[in-house]
Specification:
The complex is a heterodimer of chains A (434) and B (335). Chain A is mainly α. Chain A contains 18 helices and two strands. In chain A, α1 runs antiparallel to α2, α3 packs across α15 and α15 crosses α16. Chain A is globular and about 75 Å long. In chain B, strands 1-2 form a two-stranded antiparallel sheet. With 335 residues, chain B is an all-alpha fold. Chains A and B meet through α7, α15 and α18 of A and α4, α10 and α13 of B.
């Protein structure tokens, strides 16, 4: 269960690629890639838990990542007092009514005797509950969104430290995963895929449209940071003296310092998770998970509760994705629901897991960093390639212009080809499961 | 009179859009369900196959328009459809040869094929973006409206207008023709029967001498035709934007599963169930309610959900069906 020399070499190669970018372009770019790569690695770890350990096909990664980001905003942004006064309690009450309605409907379904009356009762509860929920919620939402819509218009958050938001973001994703898992696990694998695909779209739709929650498409900017601001460093005479003493430009040095601080934080989280994941995989629990994945029927015959274990791992993996989402929002310093695209936040993570090696945590981490590096670098490489191809064409020709404009779309094509090639020629990935 | 106005408003804002949207979803879901029945996996690349088909049709349409060819009141795209279908069929056949066949021969698990189709989705999505870009493309020509709201008002003297877009009617007619042809093919021809036999029981079909590669190739060609027609009709009715096709994947899968995966009749029914629910739940009922109950003056729009949540509707229906009737409304297969 440890790394072979070959695996080490692969890791060294990936970091060397990033280092080459640092030397050739700038360390700012390289560290930017590394930071997002570390976050991607955590997302890949989450997906690997679900797919690699348990064979669960989750294509709703985007939703859990976005929920983590929402968690970061809810925890760390300062509360908007006026909005709470205007309609905060109404909204909370409305949401409580909504949840109570669903709970009551489920209870009715479970407790009432079978028959037409049961279905009718459940539908009646749902319909009445929906209208009461809307009647309570809507005025509250209108009141909250009316307050200073240009800068806030939402309830704000709890004003707690941002680092606290990371586990809470994970917990939020875990809660959603529990809901999805309760309904969709135990069905066939493709159905779980469609269900998770749907829930991700719904989470994004809610985040885009419920302005009272996190300002919707108006975005939340200025999310607090766990590291100092560049400008404060530049205004700190001690920092400037030290950096000029070492022969660095204080402005560049400040942004590199900030990025390094992030890298340190992310690396710490990644290593902790990796250690936990490895220990879990090596434990009896991990062996049970793989036994269930490899032969559900046999595992069930041995007395393992397959659905419960699936639910457990589904929640754990989604929580890891949520954690990564909260970290990403922290790194960006903003929450922009409009930028969550399934190709980037769900399917790309899948490419990372498959290329890295499903079932192997180190593989997922390697895949996360490598694929993120390629995702960023394919664009300049693609442009270079197209420029070379079109070099012989006449300037101003329509085809040449079109090709140059389209170079940006090379990355999807490349990712698809990488995924297909790995699946075909090396289906177990770069660092296969052992 | 008021009741008549209510009916016309309902027709105009709910029934007509839902019927054309439902036809487009049904054609898409038929493609998904055929792949599922014959090749036994959920094809995630179907939305992008539709985008590719629509794109090829658009390119040929532009060329035809440039040559000055036109069908009068009908959109030129109809003339370009066969070329678009041919291009898409070539693409999916090449994909099958290069990608899927390998896994078929290995008898890989369906979920592996789903992941493979994810890779194909990336490639097709990239191809479409590479060739035509990500922007909105307009290619509709011919008559815009069969009847405009104003004409209808003048004709009938009602307050409410009923506008029927030419593309809406065209969508329905083409969908009916395509579905009729498909069912005739599946039920009456020898090849169609062998396809159904293959879908019902692969081993038995192989024993009775059906050539599996031929069945698979014909399935891909039919799917390419369905996807191209659905994509082109959707593009004519709304507009062509590659990203929207990717998003159609969810309602299409919902339609196929609600109807019962692998069951063509179910796919059509599912398409209309999804389309009607989406439109009715996101429609603002204030106008209709105003005609039916003039004394009642609600302050809201009486909209159950904002239109941004239309995905939530297809999803909710999907979940309900999965929970209470996992094989779908019409018995599909459950592999």
């Amino acid at each position: 269960m440890s790394l072979t020399p070959r695996d080490m070499l692969l890791f060294v190669a990936v970091f060397a690629l990033i280092a080459v970018t640092g030397v050739m372009q700038s360390w700012n770019v390289a560290l930017g890639i590394l930071n997002m790569g570390l976050i991607s690695a955590i997302m890949a770890l989450g997906v690997n838990m679900q797919w690699g350990y348990a064979g669960l096909f989750n294509v709703g990664v985007m939703g859990f990542v976005a929920l983590g980001g929402l968690g970061a905003v809810i925890v760390s942004m300062p509360p908007v007092g006026e909005a709470w006064a205007a309609g905060g309690l109404r909204i909370v009450a409305g949401l409580a009514i909504g949840a109570a309605t669903i709970a009551a409907a489920i209870l009715a379904w479970k407790r009432l005797p079978k028959g037409k009356s049961r279905a009718l009762a459940m539908v009646a509860i749902l319909i009445v509950g929906f209208f009461v929920y809307r009647a309570v919620l809507d005025p509250g939402v209108a009141a909250v969104e009316a307050i200073n819509p240009a800068t806030t218009g939402n309830l704000g958050g709890l004003g707690l430290p941002i680092l606290l938001a990371w586990p809470i973001g994970g917990a939020l994703a875990a809660g959603a995963a529990w809901l999805v898992g309760k309904t969709a696990l135990g069905l066939r694998s493709d159905y779980l895929a469609i269900a998770t695909l749907g829930i991700a779209e719904i989470i994004i739709a809610v985040m885009k449209n419920e302005d009272w929650l996190a300002r919707g498409v108006k975005n939340v900017i200025g999310v607090p940071r766990p590291v100092p601001y560049e400008i404060d460093l530049q205004n700190d005479p001690g920092f400037v003296d030290r950096m000029t003493g070492w022969g660095f430009d204080p402005v560049t040095a400040s942004s590199i310092t900030v990025k390094l601080a992030y890298s340190g934080l992310f690396l710490a989280v990644l290593l902790l998770l990796l250690w936990l994941a490895q220990s879990a995989l090596a434990s009896p629990w991990g062996r049970m998970m793989r036994a269930i994945r490899d032969n559900e029927t046999a595992a069930e015959a041995m007395g393992k509760d397959v659905t419960a274990r699936h639910l457990q791992i589904f929640i754990l993996g989604s929580a890891v994705c949520g954690l990564a989402g909260a970290m990403m929002t922290t790194l960006d310093g903003q929450l922009t629901p409009g930028t969550y695209q399934p190709l980037r936040f769900t399917f790309l993570i899948w490419v990372m897991v498959i290329v890295g090696g499903s079932g192997n945590n180190f593989g997922a981490v390697l895949g996360g960093i490598l694929i993120w590096y390629l995702w960023i670098m394919v664009e300049p490489f693609g442009l270079l390639l197209i420029q070379t191809i079109t070099a012989g064409m006449a300037d101003g020709s329509a085809l040449k212009e079109h090709l140059l404009d389209s170079a940006a779309h090379m990355r999807l094509l490349t990712m698809g080809i990488i995924l297909l090639a790995v699946l075909r020629f090396s289906p177990r990935g770069l660092i296969p499961e052992r | 009179m008021d009741l008549l106005n209510a009916v016309v408003a309902l027709l105009n804002f709910v029934v007509v859009p839902a019927v054309s949207y439902g036809s487009q979803l049904a054609l898409g879901a038929l493609g998904v369900t055929l792949i599922y029945g014959i090749l036994r996996f959920s094809n995630f690349a179907h939305g992008d196959t539709m985008a590719f088909g629509a794109m090829s049709t658009i390119l040929v349409t532009w060329w035809l328009q440039g040559m000055g060819v036109s069908l009068g009141p009908l959109p030129t795209a109809l003339l370009a459809l066969p070329a678009g279908i041919a291009a898409t069929a070539l693409l999916v056949l090449a994909t099958d040869r290069l990608v899927y066949r390998f896994y078929r021969e290995q008898k890989a698990a369906p979920v592996i094929l789903v992941i493979v189709s994810m890779g194909v989705m990336f490639v097709m999505n990239g191809l479409v973006r590479f060739i035509i870009g990500v922007d909105d493309q307009r290619f509709a020509d011919g008559a815009r409206f069969l009847i405009t709201a104003r004409d209808f008002k003048e004709m009938t003297g009602l307050q409410e207008g009923l506008a029927i877009k030419a593309t809406a009617l065209l969508t329905v007619i083409v969908a009916v023709i395509v579905v009729a042809a498909l069912f005739w093919f599946l039920n009456k021809t020898r090849t169609g029967k062998s396809m159904r036999a293959f879908s019902d029981n692969e081993d038995l079909a192989l024993l009775s001498g059906i050539n599996p590669e031929r069945v698979v190739a014909i399935t891909w060609i039919i799917v390419a035709a369905l996807a191209t027609i659905a994509g082109t009709l959707y593009g004519l009715d709304k507009s062509f934007k590659p990203f929207t096709y990717f998003q159609l994947l969810l309602p299409i899968f919902a339609a196929a599963i609600v109807g019962g995966l692998g069951n063509p009749v179910g796919a059509i029914a599912g398409g209309f169930v999804i389309a009607f629910s989406e439109v009715t739940i996101t429609y603002a009922w204030k106008k209709v309610a105003g005609y039916v109950l003039p004394s009642w003056e609600p302050d809201g729009l009486i909209q159950l959900m904002s239109t941004d949540y239309k995905f939530a509707v297809s999803f909710a229906i999907l979940i309900i069906v999965l929970l209470f009737r996992p094989t779908g409304l019409f018995r599909g297969k459950s592999v």
